[in-house]
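Need Terminase small subunit's 3D structure for a figure. Predict it.
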Amino acid sequence: MSKPLTPKQQRFVEEYLVDLDGPKAYIRAGYRVSSGVAAKKAAALLAREDVQEAIKSMRASGAKIGRPSAYSEEIADRICAALVEGRSLRSICLDDGIPAQSTVFYWLSRDLHPDFSERYARAREAQADAIFDEILDIADDGSNDYVTRTRDDGSEYQAFDAEHVQRSKLRIDARKWMAGKLQPKKYGDATTVKHADADGEKIELDDVAKFTRLAAIAAQAHSMIGEQGDEPADDAG
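Structure prediction for Terminase small subunit:
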């Protein structure tokens, strides 16, 4: 007798019946792998007899297959609340009762529900604050900076775990970038200086252009001072 499917495998079966796309179903089921690996893993699952039996059973049962596609205030509330908590839309759309990510993007791109579009935008802005809090938590958490290792003589010692610290740095950098994109005025890096051209139109210069411009202005000023100093002085008498 074959073992029952694991929760993820059962989820794969359900997701597969949504669009019959094995690799996408594998990822939507919660497996965190690349698309290339997902294709191989999905093919391996679909080749299993117990998985095929589960697919046939779900089809024969007449159970409702697929994710909801109709908009509702309840779904909108759940999505926005989860965003404010710092979760990604991708992970939210894996929750039961939530439409596929493509459906949510379709609502937003067509502005089919203006109220939801506005709430979604505000939730994304608030998400930056949650991400900022995560940055502080990661930076303050030094619990795994050291690991216990064993010497050849059997004695133990605490060793600095550079790999963990580097991983924490990557997590912080990714969140800093995300927060800066969600709320550039609050968390973005100010790397531009605004100027106006001869017609009064605003222009923006990046750091390289800024320093080049300043150097040119300084050189011009120095030249003007030099020219003034070379002029002959008026005779006093």
